[in-house]
Amino acid sequence: MDIEFIKSKIGEIIVELEKEVMEVVSDETIDKQNTNLRLKPLASTKKILTNALDSIKMVDELAQK
User: Fold this and answer.
1) CA-to-CA distance for 6 and 1, rounded, in angstroms?
2) Longest C-alpha distance within the chain, in Å?
3) CB 17 within 8 A of CB 46
4) Which end of the chain has fewer CB atoms < 10 Å from its terminal CB, N or C?
5) What is the pLDDT of residues 9-53, one digit of tens each?
6) Amino acid 33: pLDDT
7) Among candidates 49, 22, 25, which has minimal Cα distance to 36?
8) DSSP sequence for 22-38
9) Which pLDDT does position 37 carry in this prediction?
């Protein structure tokens, strides 16, 4: 399994998520409550991707043993 490739692709997705977060945060036309509502799915997605990468790394380590 090419962990570095997977890591780089997940990293690219996270960079795009962070761009979306910055757009939401810098949008002064929405109030604080709506800003928070729009940020939660982005934060959750980032956490899911990070956890998935950790799981893939663990599976790869076990497969190598």
Assistant:
1) 9
2) 54
3) yes
4) C
5) 999 999 999 999 999 999 999 999 999 999 999 999 999 999 999
6) 92
7) 25
8) HHHHH-TTS-HHHHHHH
9) 93
User: Nearest to residue 10, comparing CAs of 46, 41, 64, 36?
Assistant: 46
**28: its two tokens:** 């002064």
Angle, in degrees to the nearest 10, between helices 32-64 and 3-26:
170
Q: Which contacts (CB < 8 Å, 24+ apart) does range 44-51 have?
A: 45/17, 46/14, 46/17, 46/18, 49/10, 49/13, 49/14, 50/10, 50/14
Q: Please identify which residue in the block is written with the tokens 């690219």.
A: 12
Which pLDDT score, from 0 to 100, does residue 18 have? Answer: 95
| This prediction's pTM | 0.81
